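Collaborator request, handled under Task 6.
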Amino acid sequence: MSLDQRAENVLKNLVETYIHDGQPVGSRTLSKLPQLGVSSATVRNVMSDLEELGLITSPHTSAGRIPTVQGYRLFVDSMVRASTPTAAAVTQLSERFEGESDPEKLLSHASDVLSELTEFAGMVVLPNQSVTRFHQLEFMRLSETRVLAILVTEDGRVQNRVLSSADGFGESELVQAANFFNQRYKGNTLSDVRRLLVKDMQADNDEMHRINQSAIQAASQVISAEDQGTPSDVVVSGEQKLLGVPDLCQIETLQALFDAFKTKRDLLDLLDRSMKADGVSVFIGEESGFSALGECSVIASPYEVNGKVIGTLGVIGPTRMAYDSVISVVDITSKLLSQALSGASRS
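Structure tokens returned to the collaborator:
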């Protein structure tokens, strides 16, 4: 939808005024703004046109108007410019991620930072196994029949699993099995490693026959367990801050919202949509497709490790939010988290 310059200016100033004041905006209020420079009657006529287009609406019997979801969408797509943070602010943000090399702590920390800076709920989706890439596998012999398998993924996460076998494991055979895995499957996703491994074993691979079959089976167990384990999860921080947001004060609204935080299924589905997006995605109200988020907006962005997208992060708050500053916070945080995770994966 395109508007002429006057209508666009009226809508832009109406949305900005409503976001700032939280009250329906009347024509007299807008006509007093120096940047518009038009009469109250002119503003009133333009507002009438905007209402017919479904971009603004009148709540109850109020003479003022507020933006609809469609109005917010046009505002965000055409009129919002992400605010540019100061160098000092970027430095302060960067320091939040310095000195930490544990990927899981970095992800949790990013969620906290998003909440602190926006005063809304911060969210980070943990890397999905379908995009998590295998980096290294090591074995540590615990006894004749028990081995500790250590799986390292490219994003720096480490998973341990104790394996048992009645056949026993020899030290040299474990080293051979680990070397075989690391040379043959490094850089593939866990799902691909599992499929390739099954294919290689069915192909009666000569190299596999030289290696203890129990060790190969043990390695296969580790990959399969991680690939088919728990689905992606989402870390949420600061959800209690939404209790103080006037726009979300209805008990039914809060109950549905906190149920969504508890089950996380809808949040994961929504945030996963932004995995393939180029930059920041904005979901406003009913656009999310979930009734629990009907009064909310979700701003999300993918994050990467060494140039490969592995997850998303974002903020959930009321539809009446300062989109320019929140978009900027989400964008910068995703970039800083990507840098920190990439550094952790190389250390």
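The cover message to the collaborator said: "The first strand starts at residue 56 and ends at 57. The domain at 5-78 is CATH 1.10.10.10 (Arc Repressor Mutant, subunit A). Please let us know whether this matches your experimental observations."
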